[in-house]
Specification:
By secondary structure, the protein is an alpha+beta fold. 52% of the residues lie in helices and 20% in strands.
Amino acid sequence: MSVNQPRRSFCPACERLIPWHQNVPVLSWLFLRGKCSGCGSPIATRYVIVELLTAALFASVTLKLGTSNFPLQAACWLLVSLLIVATFVDLEHLIIPDEVTWGGVMAGLVLSPLIPALHGAQSPLAGFVQSAFGAAGGYGLLWAVAEVGRIAFGTRTHDFDPPTSLVWTRSGDEAQMIVDGETLQWGELFVRGSEKVVMQVISGEVDGNLKSSGRAVWKFERLELEGSALDLNIVERVEFKISALTLPREVMGFGDVKFLAAIGAFLGWKSVLFTVLAASVCGATFGVLTLLLGKREWSARIPFGPFLALGALLWMMRGPELLQAYWQWTLHLAAQG
């Protein structure tokens, strides 16, 4: 959606433009009891959570930096806004938009020479160099992790005895595949766009036309079967009985790679290392808690982007202090051992 058209917020249900006096953050939501005044449709709690979180984090940045350097404060507010947007979009859609990632990289590179204090630098050139190293380091680090993960764990194969059902359906530009009762979103299987889904077909049909058995190779927009290729843009429904299925697997989405580059562009290369470490610890802790609570499915659907955002926030607020405390702790353990 454009940020310019329409000019004002509107109800997603009835598309009625919201007057200014019903668009006051937090207060309007409470006054309207979480419902649209026009059609009565619920206003998602997410809105008020984002408003409260934004206010709290903006206030925290101000308390941390003070009010003597407003450009630095405003640059950190911008980064906080990017982190919030990335977190909630990633939680809901399992993607981080390029407007946030590449946009964040560009913003960090432009602002760093204008506000060298972002990196504790004394000159515009030093600020830009720190930003460039941070962006390159952030991208390169997670890119290497993603590539190694793809090589080591690039596919996973499932065998079905007896054969199971597979239903692929398309609705507009979106598609999904249901295999043995599990729903897979088509776009999530093709992160790079060059992946393949391979299966052994026992029987089935495409848009009601019977197909013989054999090896089927799916690409993002094409199905190869019986020596011919079908354009998936004009196929509505595929139903197969399959005995084996091989799916592509990524250990990390490229949205996370670009997101860490944006964080590095704003905060420098030291923040990249801290952010990855903190995000990994927080993610692992969350995973263990879900296992202890018997809610393993929670961790299966939580992306890495929110943990990266949390790691970046920790660096902004207390990163150097936390590193110093950790270093002192390890020295103390070494002295005792």
